Amino acid sequence: TPLQNDLHEFFTMV
Amino acid sequence: MLEARLEQSSVLKKVVDAIKDLVQDCNFDCNDSGIQLQAMDNSHVALVAMHLKTEGFALYRCDRNIALGINLVSLQKVLRAAQNEDVMTLKAEDSPDALSLVFENSENDRISEYDLKLMDIDQEHLGIPETEYGATVKMPSAEFQRICRDLSLLSESVAIEATKEGIKFSCTGDIGKGAVTLRQNPNVEKPELGTTIELQEPVALTFSLKYLVNFCKASGLSNTVTISLSNEVPLLIEYEMEHGYVRFYLAPKIGD
After folding, report:
1. B55 forms bridges with which residues in the sheet?
2. CA distances from A6 to A14, B46, B177 (A)
3. Predicted confidence (pLDDT) per residue in B213-252, tens digit
4. CA–CA distance from B186 to each of B52, B207, B247 (Å)?
5. Are residues B47 and A12, on separate chains, in Cβ contact within 8 Å?
6. Which residues of B touch A8 (CB under 8 A)?
7. So what's the ipTM on this one?
8. B61 and chain A in contact, CB less than 8 A
9. N or C: which end of chain B has fewer CB within 10 A?
10. What phi, psi does B234 have (nearest 5°)?
11. Alpha carbons B216 and B142: distance in angstroms, whole number
């Protein structure tokens, strides 16, 4: 099964 | 203070139904543009963004920004007391510890009044960059739901490929494999039944079907769904309402 990315890798905290 | 009236309770009922399995506690941010929500699931893989715009309310008044910290399971219990056709009025003070909900039937001879306790939720807010997507697909929401459900019976993951041939959903599991390809097929008379594909560049990504099936619970909000894809960025799935939207973002999976 492929590994799952985390949204924090794409979107920055504001 | 906040005072917001919806002509039909079903709007909020459907929104809550659509997101309650993804997030548990979240802030409903009320300001002069309407009611907004942004929340990630516990595993930080999926994000939901919702906006009910002021134009969608029969009456809307919000003097200052108010965050309503709501447990969605609790809200759903209260909303169960509202009939779909009831007029719903939401009221809250400026620093509220409760949200007041009033449901009135169209005959105007029943008034139901509920208070929902609010909570302090310290929620992180993510900035979502404007993205030019490589592929944008608009299709009937019921068809997307069917494809996700069917493939989820075979596998945990789905590969989505957008090419000039169309958009292909495929998966491989223990019992076998499956694939559904949709070709562009605009419906002139009933655009909501057609499929349109805008392709800037070919896209190939893999996603968790569990989340996609979950997003499809929003299908009742709109006859159509828009799926936006770019290589190596989160997928965007949008259910557009007459005066607002529910958007889901899902992080892609990475190679075997």
Report:
1. none
2. 17, 8, 27
3. 999 999 999 999 999 999 999 999 999 999 999 999 999 9
4. 29, 26, 23
5. no
6. 44, 126
7. 0.92
8. no
9. C
10. -65, 145
11. 8
